[in-house]
Amino acid sequence: MITPLVGAELRQLRKTPATWGLLAAALLLCLAWTAMVLAGVGGIESPPRGSMRLRDALFGASSIGCLPVLLLGVLAMTGEFHYRTATFAFLAVPVRSRVVAAKTVACLLLTPLIAVALVMVPYATGVITGAVELTLDRHLVAVCLRVVLVFACWAVVGAGIGAAVGNQTVAVVLPLLWFGVVEQMSGAYAFLQGLQAWLPGGLLVVVGGGRYPGSLPLWAAAAAFAAYLFVLFGAGLRRITRMDVT
Questions:
Q1: What are the C-alpha distances in Å from 140 to residues 55, 56, 58, 154?
Q2: Averaged pLDDT for residues 7-17
Q3: Is 213 helix (H, G, I), strand (E, B) or coil?
């Protein structure tokens, strides 16, 4: 059951142009990745037409949507402060932790729709172009469930960053630098690869069912990721409950 507060946050997300801009960006990036995968069919070391490897590669195109989903969580959490409506929000709901929870839940409710769309668009493109056959099986369901789980995690990370940082510009730039530069460098340099397993992006690879050299077991990755969320939301709730919004 959706509470009135969560419903209000969902309506606010729906009416915010940035929400639709991020979803459009996720879709365009997904289509671009799909085009690159299909353009490589028949090449050396590329998956052959009609193979399960090609279908999995098309499913993998959905992963490009993780960053826009993270930014959606950031914008949802920081919007009240950016547009200076926090005073009205906290007067209407004096328990500020409820506002934080409602914004987080609203993002979580959107992620299944986004995840399934970003899985099905590349798959449908592959079917339409004749690169893969249309089959509905348990593997497709499992992929959709994993993508939903991972997207939900990214959305919560974004909400946690937004709660902890507050300033919308900083909260948007910070994860772009972290996940786009810092974590990429950790995987590119051998002496930093041991650190990759403990970083949020590396943990989410394992949570989503992936593995790589040195990755943690699933239970350890989930526990470490939960610890990151605990720190982010703990810092965010402390900041929000103590700040003066008058």
A1: 10, 9, 11, 21
A2: 88
A3: coil
Specify burial of residue 112 (Cβ count, 10 A radius: 0-12, 13-18, 19+). middle
Q: In this structure, how many other beta carbons lie within 10 angstroms of the beta carbon of residue 55? A: 22
Tell the residue number behind the tokens 């098309």, with chain if given. 58
Helical pair 138-165 and 168-177, crossing angle rounded to 10 deg: 130
CB 207 within 8 A of CB 152: no
SS3 103: helix
Reported confidence tier of residue 132, pLDDT bands at 50, 70, 90: confident
Q: Find out whether 43 and 36 touch, Cβ atoms under 8 Å.
A: no
pTM for this structure?
0.88
pLDDT digits (tens, 9 = 90+) for 68-91: 999 999 999 988 877 777 777 777
> At 150, which helix (H) or strand (E)?
helix 138-165
Element of type H or E holding 82: helix 66-82
**pLDDT tens digits, 21-43:** 999 999 999 999 999 888 887 67
Q: What is the identity of the amino acid at 1?
A: M
Our count of domains for the chain comes to: 1
Domain range enclosing 60: 4-242
Residue of 48 and 225 predicted with greater confidence: 225
Closest CA to 241 of 98, 97, 99: 97
Torsion of CA 137, 141, 146, 150, to 10 degrees: 130
User: From residue 112, how far is each of 135, 157, 204 by CA, in Å?
Assistant: 21, 16, 17
What is the separation, in whole angstroms, between the first and last Cα of the chain? 33
